[in-house]
Amino acid sequence: MSMILTIASREFRTLFLSPMAWTILAILQFILAFLFLTQIEAFTELQPKLASIEGAPGLTDIIVPPLFGNAGIILLLVTPLLTMRLICEERRNKTLALLLSAPVSNTDIILGKYLGILGLMLLIIVLITLMPLSLLSGAELDLGKLFANILGLLLLVTSFAAIGLFMSCVAGHPTVAAMGTFGMLLLLWILDWSVGVKDQHSELFEYLSILRHFQNIQSGLISTVDVSYFLLFTATFITLSIRRLDNDRLQK
Amino acid sequence: MTTLIEADNLTRYYGSHCAVKGVSFTLAKGEVLGFLGSNGAGKTTTMQMLCGNLAPSAGQIIINGYDLLDHPKAAKLSLGYLPDTPPLYKELTVQEFLLYCAGLHGIARNSVNAAIERAQERCGLIEVSDRLIANLSKGFQQRVGIAQAILHNPEVIVLDEPTVGLDPIQIREIRTLIRELGQDHGVILSTHILTEVQESCTHVQIIDQGQLILNETIAGLNRQMDTGTLQVVTRLAPDIDSLLTIPGVDSIESIAANKIIVHHSVTANPAEKIAALIIASGSGLQELTPIKRSMEDIFISLTKEHREL
Question: N or C: at which end does chain B have fewer Cβ atoms within 10 angstroms?
Fold first, then answer.
């Protein structure tokens, strides 16, 4: 366990040694802050009308789900860039030998790498959450719904990072890993677009679509189906990554 | 003598190409084993297998009593490895990098600093410990690699071409370090520099085309190198017939008027008697040199023999 944390903390700190993490945090924060402010603007415009409607959506409904939804889309673009170097770069720089000859198992290596990158993702989520929380100074928020959104985004990025890690294990070059991750994420994201077409309901596609599960949680409906979808998804790709790393020793 | 490494019948295929074939050897504490071979002979593959970076296609490796396949963690605890490209995170400083390695090898928290300091001192890294690895010269990077391998004081140290890219002074320092390490660890080093083996190793193995063709102690190798030949230079032409009567002398070749080559049996060295006889005869002894086969000669003749078979 301590080995996992050693690897994870190095991974996390190294991210901040290059401009990469700082740039991504800054740009993400800037874009989301912009979206957040537009959303507030929209709310202040709508407020008089909303007041007259019975059971109208409140402040939380108007601001939080769009913010977290957009954050999900932006993270879909950003995650491949963050995860592409995880294993790939170590292999290219031949530093993987250091980990392989140290008394750590492949599971430790993969989990360490995964937790390291997840640390940055958590930081991003915290920074996003701070925006709606700032409204607490002058308004009331539906904290349950906010929590559901945080949980949704958290589950979303855990699965994003797991795919990214797997792709980084498979690919020989970071760019290929990034493209692979992006392609897979986008496919899984838009999978249920086909559902609406021509009344052809595909239960399978609907189940596989990340977006559907994410939106369910976002709406405040935290069901075992959606949560376990993300957990299974993450566990599968982490297991595949470990298997892939094992394979490195066998073939080459 | 405790056996630290037992490699049994190691074999490794890359596809259908056999890189290492049936290599077996042992390493005991206090030994420095030199692994010699030309490029592509299978040195690095063998080392990678020993350190668990590559699974052997067949064979067994036992490190310090633990099977590398069944108990990888326990086996790797007593292993320090420097691959042919030193595995360095260029964006870290030397100190940070070694701190990370200490964590990976599970060095107890209270002895980490002492361990790092000792490794830095041994490899001459004290003055660069706060610099980024990326900004260090190749020689220093190599030394950081060695520091990483000896940091946790492992029983077995595997060094793949440790002196590549170092200047002559650094090479001498590293050789001294290797000899020092050899006293209370088991060291394996691979190289294609023959003098390196002679200077720092106690045992030598020559590998060619994936097969072990020589496994000898350095003393045994020195005996092989001693072919029983003397070169004698005199002021006046010596009396060859009387020299031939000296016991132990097999034959004499005359190269020039005052230069002869004496072949003698390896067991009886007649150098002293030859010198006495020449001086007594008044030919004027100027030079008496034992001619040895160099390590190169042995290496080349062995590989050639092996390839012809």
Answer: C
**φ, ψ dihedrals at B19, nearest 5°:** -85, -35
The DSSP annotation for B176-214 comes to: HHHHHHHHHSEEEEEES-HHHHHHH-SEEEEEETTEEEE
Chain A positions touching chain B (beta carbons under 8 Å): 2-3, 6-7, 10, 14, 17-18, 93-105, 249-250, 252
DSSP state of B29: T
Q: Is the dihedral of CA B167, B169, B172, B177 positive or negative?
A: negative
- From the list B53, B91, B101, the residue facing A249 with the nearest CB is B53
Distance of CA B289 to the CA centre of its chain: 27
This complex has an ipTM of 0.86
* Predicted confidence (pLDDT) per residue in B221-251, tens digit: 777 776 677 888 888 887 788 888 888 787 7
CA max distance for chain B: 77
CB atoms within 10 A of CB B172: 13
Burial grade of B204 (CB within 10 A; 0-12, 13-18, 19 or more): buried
pTM: 0.85
